[in-house]
């Protein structure tokens, strides 16, 4: 998917919501556990109920790997279901991968070609040659961790290198990499006040913003500092939507929660 | 496996060799491709031929993920084969994972409990709460990326924060984390001269050292600066061993190459 196609979808749906599909079998409604594939059954129900309210889905691979081969199979079914039924939706493998060049290439092949995701999240610690193999894929997007939403972000990301924080150094350096136009960035909503500075470095890039809701981030604040003319934001919510109810009405309640966010987003987009 | 058990194995086998099982179907001998599971067939042959010469095996997960569900299954068969037949061998999932706390816990569960690996490599960018969930597992080891062997290591890892490089900051900071005794570190052999400084910060920790051979690192240099009384080194070689021949004699030639390194290691250990 091209960035323009994503922007078009945002304008069409009046939404820049991404729903995180982080399926924990301890948290899904109990009646699903008797399904042959409870993880996929859960995802399918959530997707069927919410696809008109969001522009992206983001399964975090950890939740699938934790269930071994069966989990990996559920992830495969989920991305194939999305690509077959909702090819207009942007898909994100939240995998936080990154390795030396020839190895990163294998990861890129796995997520872009085999699974068919539109994008994958990548960790920057190993530098340029660990990220560029992901950037080679046409109309695929690499979402680089910049400033994450967790407490540990203050351990290294906000440390100052020559008067500039490590995460800013990541943003600046990555701009010079080959096919940098295929880069997006993860910036946590819990640090909305950093967004003004971030926009000075990457004025045009899309940001994937986790941490609205469960982690305490505020949508209006994020938009105030992070939104650009082409929107440039994907706001992720996981637990606040998919686990809003654990009864038989879980998909319906998820849609209600997604709708609340979409309505808020539509109002913000109108004022653009 | 405890660290002491690993040290005992090193002394018994007179080897601190780790063999990287990075299986690329474009590089394995062609006659294996007609096997039902060529990846596992390759690994089994390599393990059968080399297990007496090394103390650790390190499959890099990227190479398995690149083959989708089948690859994941081959990885599962490989670790189970190792645990059943060679429980004395230290196993490393080279996965370079790391995510917010509850998500890292899922990765830890996947690699330590479901697969049954002794250790996993983890990226430090997201800080303390992304690493500590891995450290909670008794007799399991978390191998934190410190200074990697690739060119991109100079992009962020060697940048200076308050007069100290980022990777040193990672080493120092991680020492205060809960269950830090379960930490080991990745330090690339291509940067042997850094090892003296690194040993000042972490005098007792095991280091996993990739980059000997194919990437140009030198074994003697690494030992000179990095070895401690309890050895404290695992030297990894992947391509230089497993792809030394791509004929029917591939396992035999792999054993020869592993043996060359083991003999060199035995001599170094004797001079300790």
Automatic annotation (TrEMBL), chains A, B:
Protein name as catalogued: Orotidine 5'-phosphate decarboxylase
Protein's UniProt keywords contain Lyase: yes
PANTHER family recorded: OROTIDINE 5'-PHOSPHATE DECARBOXYLASE
InterPro entries in the cross-refs: Aldolase_TIM, OMPdecase_type-2, OMPdeCOase_dom, RibuloseP-bd_barrel
Catalytic activity: orotidine 5'-phosphate + H(+) = UMP + CO2
Transmembrane segments: none
Organism from which the protein derives: Gelidibacter maritimus
EC number in record: 4.1.1.23
Catalytic site positions: 96 (proton donor)
């Amino acid at each position: 998917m091209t960035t323009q196609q994503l922007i078009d979808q945002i304008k069409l749906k009046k939404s820049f919501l991404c729903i995180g599909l982080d399926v924990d079998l301890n948290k899904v409604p109990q009646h699903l556990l008797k399904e042959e594939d409870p993880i996929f059954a859960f995802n399918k129900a959530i997707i069927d109920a919410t696809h008109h309210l969001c522009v992206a889905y983001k399964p975090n691979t950890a939740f699938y790997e934790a269930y071994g081969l069966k989990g990996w199979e559920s992830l495969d079914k989920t991305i194939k279901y999305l690509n077959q039924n909702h090819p207009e939706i942007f898909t994100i493998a939240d995998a936080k991968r990154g390795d030396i060049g020839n190895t990163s290439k294998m990861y890129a092949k796995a997520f872009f070609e085999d699974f068919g995701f539109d994008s994958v999240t990548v960790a920057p610690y190993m530098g340029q040659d660990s990220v560029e193999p992901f950037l080679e894929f046409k109309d695929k997007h690499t979402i680089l961790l910049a400033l994450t939403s967790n407490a540990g972000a203050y351990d290294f990301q906000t440390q100052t290198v020559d008067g500039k924080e490590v995460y800013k150094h990541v943003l600046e350096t990555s701009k010079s990499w080959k096919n940098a136009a295929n880069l997006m960035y993860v910036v946590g909503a819990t640090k909305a006040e950093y967004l003004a500075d971030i926009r000075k470095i990457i004025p045009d890039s899309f940001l994937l913003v986790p941490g609205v809701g469960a982690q305490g981030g505020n949508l209006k604040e994020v938009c105030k500092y992070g939104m650009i003319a082409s929107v440039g934001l994907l706001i992720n919510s996981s637990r606040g939507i998919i686990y809003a109810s654990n009864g038989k009405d879980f998909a319906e309640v998820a849609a209600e929660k997604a709708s609340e966010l979409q309505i808020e987003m539509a109002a913000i987009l109108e004022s653009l």
